[in-house]
Specification:
297 residues; alpha/beta; Nitrilase/N-carbamoyl-D-aminoacid amidohydrolase
Length: 297
């Protein structure tokens, strides 16, 4: 049986104080380890360790001030905390400086203290977010357990994100989020839709009041909300049955719907004008499909 026990910490940074926010994060991770010794992976909201302030308090120069390359003492501290606690960490996201560009980047760190994945947010919330967009979808493996896909906040509003991560074999999509606005309900709809249409778990962890509006969720592969937080600080702990992903893909959501099977049968024959390409069957599906049809003119 494949299971993954996660702790989604709905919390808030201390605005514009990176060191105090780091200490808060480290204390929260240690508290999870001590209180819930069965937890394997911890995730916190988007830009938590960047000490980002609520939208109406934002400083125009803050991103430039705190952006760093994904090397150095701040990354070493995350890695050391992972080793100390024996946990997988997805510490929200960071402002990553790379030459003349700044990205909103999530990292995944193993209990051995290794950075095993780096994901640059592909769909920044424009025009409000000024980071450069990334260009690659990212997954990583927890050996003997399953495959995790990374997304950040507004990425979830684009169906391509979850579809590509599921195509790459993700069992779970971890989505650090920092939503301060009244459209949070739309994001919850997207989380359920992304989980259902791709038959994956979605763990969307938002910032707590006053940094965000909360309402973090854990959604199962049939689109059912397993847990939902309120607006304040809260920790959602859940054991995800990753075999459920295999089950619903084989037998259908609620025993009815098998979208990946249908895509495997007919996808190669469907021309996608938006992409100029056809649907390819994912490697994990195992079916052989016909040669793609030539696009119509």
């Amino acid at each position: 049986m494949r299971t993954l026990t996660i702790a989604a910490i709905q919390t808030a940074p201390i605005p514009f104080d990176v060191e105090a926010t780091w200490q808060r994060f480290a204390d929260q991770v240690r508290a999870v380890r001590d209180t819930f010794p069965h937890v394997e992976l911890v995730v916190v909201p988007e830009l938590m360790l960047a000490a980002e302030a609520p939208l109406l308090q934002a400083r125009a120069d803050w991103m430039e001030e705190v952006a760093r390359p994904l090397t150095g003492p701040h990354i070493d501290r995350i890695c050391s905390l992972a080793v100390e606690t024996g946990l997988w960490l997805v510490p929200g996201s960071l402002y990553e400086r790379d030459d003349d560009k700044i990205y909103n980047t999530a990292v995944a760190v193993s209990p051995l203290g290794e950075v095993v994945a780096r994901y640059r947010k592909i769909f920044p919330w424009q025009p409000y977010e000024q980071t450069s967009p990334g260009s690659e979808f990212v997954v990583f493996d927890i050996p003997g357990t399953g495959r995790i896909g990374l997304a950040i906040c507004y990425d979830g509003s684009f169906p391509e994100t979850a579809r590509q991560l599921a195509w790459l074999g993700a069992d779970v999509i971890i989505q650090p989020t920092l939503t301060t606005t009244r459209d949070r309900e739309m994001e919850l709809v997207c989380s359920r839709a992304n989980a259902w249409t791709n038959q994956v778990y979605v763990v969307n962890v938002n910032g707590a009041d006053p940094a965000g509006v909360g309402a973090s969720v854990v959604v199962d592969p049939e689109g059912v909300i397993r847990q939902q937080a309120g607006s304040g600080e809260e920790v959602l702990v859940d054991t995800l049955d990753l075999d459920a992903v295999t089950r619903v893909r084989a037998y259908g959501t609620f025993g009815l719907n098998r979208p990946w099977d249908q895509l495997a049968r007919h996808g190669a024959q469907i021309h996608l004008p938006m992409y100029g390409a056809a649907i390819r069957t994912p490697a994990w599906h195992g079916d052989t499909v016909a040669t793609p049809a030539s696009p119509a003119h």
